[in-house]
Amino acid sequence: MDAQFVDILRPYLKYAGDQEITDTARLRDLGLDSMREIELLFAIEDTYGIFFPEERMVDRTFETGGTLWKAVQEIRGATQAAAS
Amino acid sequence: MSSGTLTTELPGAGLVPDPAWREAAEAVAAVASEHADQADRDAAFPAAALAEMRRTRLLGLPVPVEHGGWGGGFTELADATIALARADMTTALVFAMHCQQATAVVRHGDPQLLRDLLPTLARGEIYLGSVTTEPGTGGQLLTSESPLQESGGTLVIDRVAPVVTGGRHADAFLVTMRSAGAASPTQVDLVYAARDHLEVEVTGGWDPLGMRATESVPLRLRGAVPATHLIGGPGGFPDIAAGLFGPVAHIGWAAAWLGTAAGALARVIRYVRGQSGPRGLDVSSPLVLSNLAVIRERVDTVHALLRHTLRVVADEETRHGAVSSTSARLLVNTLKTRASEECFAAVNGLVELVGLRHGYLKGSPTGLERAFRDLRSASLNFANDRLRTADGAMALRDVSVRLV
């Protein structure tokens, strides 16, 4: 995860406090509920100019910082490949 | 009546024997019906109906056959609950919530716990209560501020709970606790605690508008249980809640509300048709007939939604082992919100239709007054507003609006 991504995540994780947000941090444990998840999704989509396809909209995607970051990178890759 | 002598006609299935548990449910419904008015008046638990649920072993409905139970799934839970609710919504709700707890134990309990527990559960010796609400969490199921302590292989519980249905009468509880050593209140454990492992202190009373006989008193629970009493492993509750607890709760509640509305409608029709002379209803009035039809539509709509949800839940369990797709979770929540509103509206419509004497006064054979008060709780029982907030977020997830 890069620093920008962690900065996007942090406001939606009300129990994260000042602690480091790692790849394996379980987002639900840090306070990501279904409402915050949608807000976070919109923030990520706006920041990176991407759209999460339906098959990514599953609990697995939002399980940890690492799984979400991996999804973002893969969607960005697919978006760029489609544009070129 | 014995199983095999009664038959039910199912569409496309011809005549099939009524399942044996139905006889038990009918016996409980008869006892519940006899005592419901008194229990309602006194805001006292339906002890006679619970005793009959034990005697008939209806409490063992969700326990697998190999452990001595009826092996009932969600459909059987719904059907038994509807049968009870036609007589008394409180008894139905008590039963449905017990089955919710029992199903969670059956599915997610430690093998050692199950060996000891399932035969007694099957024999109807254990009425399971639910302790999932906490002061300060706003009724939010998925957080807990009460930390579980681990000490030498035991789990130490100290917990207050503002609303515990049948709290004075439960033989054991499933209790949500913040996981030992959890960094946040969203890491929640589910723990099985028998009453004899606990000191149970009733800290207040219960004097509500309806659902009076649920006797949902506030409790403080203190005690210690073996580590094998953790249901679904450490931090396991959120997955159980989303995949099982939520769906079975909504199916059970909807069945209780549907049965209540159907029972009320049946009593009104029986009363009107059984009258000689003034019938209480002007059946030559197109408006009266039209209003009656709308009431029936509400009942049939909820029934259709319940049956459809049961099919989708079964399909999800076959495919994923739990209710996991967004569209299925939305449907399960829709069942709760719509059933709560339609069933109340149906009984409210009946009150309007039959008028003051048989709709508003206690003591009418229509029983509308109690059904109305009981059903008023439906939208508040895990508040529709809160559920719809989550549903709105889920609706945004389901981009193509997949209809299941």
From TrEMBL, chain A:
Coiled-coil parts of chain: none
Span of domain Carrier: 1-79
Alphabetized Pfam families for the sequence: PP-binding
Transmembrane segments: none
InterPro entries (alphabetical): ACP-like_sf, PP-bd_ACP
Protein name: Carrier domain-containing protein
TrEMBL record, chain B:
InterPro entries named in the record: Acyl-CoA_DH_C, Acyl-CoA_Oxase/DH_mid-dom_sf, AcylCo_DH-like_C, AcylCoA_DH/ox_N, AcylCoA_DH/ox_N_sf, AcylCoA_DH/oxidase_NM_dom_sf
Keywords in alphabetical order: Oxidoreductase
Ranges in coiled-coil conformation: none
Pfam families xref list: Acyl-CoA_dh_2 (PF08028), Acyl-CoA_dh_N (PF02771)
Keyword Amino-acid biosynthesis: no
Chain ranges of the Acyl-CoA dehydrogenase C-terminal domain: 252-378
Residue span, Acyl-CoA dehydrogenase/oxidase N-terminal domain: 23-125
Record's protein name: Acyl-CoA dehydrogenase family protein
Native source organism of the sequence: Nonomuraea antimicrobica
